[in-house]
């Protein structure tokens, strides 16, 4: 059975986050967008809900993780090539994000990571299609 994935992330400035992720090529579903949240489309089965912190708090029992003191998750997206890994990470850093760690080159797999405007860690990974099982 195929399931959809909805990842919810708190953001301080929704407009800035939309611009940041828009530069990375993501689109947003207008049906699930208002002044407090937007649905960033990863694909037909996965969306990232970006919610301003007060809206995000409505769903919590406890506090929002302080990304300046720790990492709450490693969010990984795929790329079509090694060059695209570098391109996306470069766009993220140029758009106000920051590098996270060092590039990982395993020969058949290559990745880089960055922090977005709110400190969430995103990995961009390419894997040689010849080693991916069908």
Order of helices and strands: EHEEEHEHEEE
Widest sheet, order of strands:
1-4-3-2
Distance between the termini: 17 Å
Radius of gyration (CA) equals: 15 Å
Overall outline: globular
Number of strands: 8
Annotated CATH architecture of the largest domain: Roll
Mean pLDDT: 95
Unreliable spans are: none
And the CATH topology of the largest domain? 2,3-Dihydroxybiphenyl 1,2-Dioxygenase, domain 1
Short structural description:
The chain is α/β, with parallel strands linked by helices and 134 residues long.
Architecture overview:
It is built from 3 helices and 8 strands. The strands form 2 sheets. The chain has a 4-stranded mixed sheet with strand order 1-4-3-2. The protein has 2 domains: 1-61, 2,3-Dihydroxybiphenyl 1,2-Dioxygenase, domain 1; 70-129, 2,3-Dihydroxybiphenyl 1,2-Dioxygenase, domain 1. The chain starts with a strand and ends in a 7-residue tail after the last strand. Strand 6 and strand 7 form a beta hairpin. The mean pLDDT is 95. The chain is globular, with a radius of gyration of 15 Å. The longest helix is centred in the middle third of the chain and has 13 residues, at 82-94. The protein is an alpha/beta fold and 134 residues long. InterPro entries: Glyas_Bleomycin-R_OHBP_Dase, Glyoxy/Ble-like_N, VOC_core.
